[in-house]
Amino acid sequence: MSDGLKRVDVRLKLVDKEAYGKEKVTRPEDAVRIVADVMTDLDREQLCVVNLDGAGHPINYNIVSIGDVNMTFAPVQNIFKTAILSNAASIIVLHNHPSSDTTVSSEDCLVTKKIMCASVLMNIPLEDHIIVGGGTGKCYSIREHEQELFDKS
Asked: Using alpha carbons only, how large is the chain's radius of gyration in Å?
């Protein structure tokens, strides 16, 4: 019997379920369109990551967390998991507000700061964090309105 560490083999696999167009994502509305079918009519908050290739085209998306009517919790490492596995060049994070109110909260800003810091360390840029209004499809780009949160310094 050995007191040493045991070797563990890990195998991860991404499973593609649906294909999305290869249109470049240049505006918040483009990102929302990719996940509109899963985000606009939800009764709970969800956080989603859209992984992009080097040209800004969507590779895939992943629902990272499902919360309750007012919040969802998503550890930063889970946000980047599919980005790493997909060899993403950058990401866009989206979450919905079931109330349809797209007003950014202090928690939304804090999460954006955390994701931004991790994106700099991992060299996977955060292009935007978008709030999707439930039932309306309206969106609020945190990058467009809170630019200081995206300062890499």
From this structure: 16
Q: Rounded mean pLDDT of the chain?
A: 85
Question: Cα-Cα-Cα-Cα dihedral of 67, 133, 49, 129, to 10°?
Answer: -110
Cβ proximity of 144 and 131 under 8 Å: no
Comparing 5-14, 103-112, 124-133, 139-148, the range with the smallest average pLDDT is 5-14
For residue range 28-54, list pLDDT tens digits in order: 788 878 777 777 778 889 999 999 999
- The helix (run of H) or strand (run of E) holding residue 47 is strand 46-52
pTM (2 d.p.): 0.83
Q: Is the pLDDT of residue 21 over 60?
A: no
Report the distance separating Cα 7 and Cα 5, nearest Å.
7
Rounded to 5 degrees, what are φ and ψ at 79?
A: -65, -35
Task: Give ∠ CA 136-45-30 in degrees, rounded to 5.
Answer: 50
DSSP 121: H
The neighbour count for residue 135, using CB atoms within 10 Å, is 15
Q: What angle do CA 31, 151, 123 make, to 5 degrees?
A: 70
